[in-house]
Amino acid sequence: MNHVLDNPIYNALSTGNKSFSNDSRGILIFPPDVAPFVGLKNNSTDELAQLYNMAPDGSNFVLFSVSEVSVPKPWEVIGQMEIWQMVYNNVTIPANFYAESHSLTENDVPAMLELTELTKPGPFLKNTFRFGNYLGFKCKGALVAMAGQRLQPLPYVEISAVCTHPEHTGKGYASSLITEQVKLITTQGNIPFLHVRTDNLSAIRVYEKLGFSIRRMIYVSSFKKLLV
Fold first, then answer.
1. N- to C-terminal Cα distance for the chain?
2. Which residues, at least 6 apart from 106, have a Cβ–Cβ distance to it below 8 Å?
3. In what helix (H) or strand (E) does residue 111 lie, and over which residues does it extend?
């Protein structure tokens, strides 16, 4: 039996993120202004063809898989990359470093979009904040670091959008925010996990120190339906 994290998008849209799910004959997608992720049960070429036929022109999608996916034409492949999937396995919740983090709300969305555009932690759109549980640090009123929750393939919950303004790195903000997210997730009886680029060695070291370990490689495919 496949592990629930082997197909995190599909299983998230079937469980913890089901309220977001647009289910079209077994193809599960988020609202396009929340996240570009698509969940396919088998990640097959037949499902990709079915998705193409139902998707509006200009649609962008991101697919996670445990093996390389050959995205068929007429899809335009935007990019493909490998990321590590890491799972929290430290039963001792680490001590928090700071106490001044803020719960981020809809009023903070412009600042969240600006910070994520600068730091590129992954897709963050105008309604991504609806995933909830976003926390951040502010300096003189400006948002300088943030982290939140995204995919929920229960009992796992993903920590995401971990980013710090380049002028405020090295202050432990990311570690503190991840620690807070771990507490929020484990208090609900769930297990934190996250994804990180394989070449982001500094982030991987931080995550390992906070109790995360690499579970497996995940392949990310981004593709677009061209305007006709």
1. 41
2. 129
3. helix 109-119
Domains along the sequence of the chain with CATH: 4-83+219-224 (3.40.630.30), 86-216 (3.40.630.30)
Residues forming beta bridges with residue 100, ordered by sequence position? none
User: Is 192:88 a contact under the CB 8 Å cutoff?
Assistant: yes
* 200 Cβ contact partners less than 8 Å away, ≥ 6 residues apart: none
Query: Structure pTM?
Result: 0.94
Return the amino acid letter for 28. L
Tens-level pLDDT at each residue, the chain (228 residues) = 589 999 999 999 999 999 999 877 889 999 999 999 999 999 999 999 999 999 999 999 999 999 999 999 999 999 999 999 999 997 676 666 665 789 999 999 999 999 999 999 999 999 999 999 999 999 999 999 999 999 999 999 999 999 999 999 999 999 999 999 999 999 999 999 999 999 999 999 999 999 999 999 999 999 999 876
Q: What DSSP string runs through 173-205?
A: HHHHHHHHHHHHHHHTT-EEEEEEETT-HHHHH
For the record, the structure tokens of 65 come out as 């898989």
Contact 112, 129 (CB under 8 A): yes
Cis ω for the linkage preceding 74 (within 30 of 0): yes
